[in-house]
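Before a colleague's protein record goes any further, I have to sign it off. Thanks in advance; the entry in question is below:
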Amino acid sequence: MKQSFLILLIGALLFFVNGIFAQQPTSGKFTVFTIGDSTMASKKAEVAPETGWCQVFPEFVDSSVEIKNRAVNGRSSKSFITEGRWKAVLDSLKTGDYVFIQFGHNDQKIQDSTRYTEPFTTYRNNLERFVRETREKGATPILFTSIVRRKFENGFLIDTHGNYPVATRMVATEMNVPLVDLQMITTGAVTALGEEPSKQIYLWTPPTEKFPKERNDDTHLSVEGARLVAKLAAQQLILMDNSFAKQLKR
């Protein structure tokens, strides 16, 4: 009797785990679409060294994965939908694809009605929509909390994202969505580096011919910062031990 119960329990657990991650195409090739804001987006050469972490994420996957970075500067979960960007991604999704979802930075902009969302209502509803519609296409959503802003007070890194990461975690839990908690992970990384050394992973650059004024940007990433975040994200995806993890470089 105990043995039969154990077999049933193991079977139920395997069913649950397999349900979280969509089955990959038989060819083993699939696409990862990334949707989000400027901290993910691919940058033009004229703003170098500003770099989005999904811009360098292809360095961490093998040739079976195609990364289509659809993140755009300044977009919130709301404006990404209203501008038709989400529909364009959705129309391209196939069974076995993945969608990386990271919003929050621009959803906070209460003064801008085209972008602002309230964390536990409109923001949450938008995330749920991304998840639901991704699954309807046979693809797998993965949620990401926002990377931490570099804001120190009295030597301590402080939170600037309020309830947006909380709402993201709630959606992940309630809808059984894989979650990479970049806010928590990058908070640890920036804290470990310290107040001054952590400037190197953000856009703290001296005056140049291209940019006559120095840049003291605590939100956007340098090349080094983008690679660090991409590496941290890849490590978390490997720990999830799903079929996508097999395509990530160790």
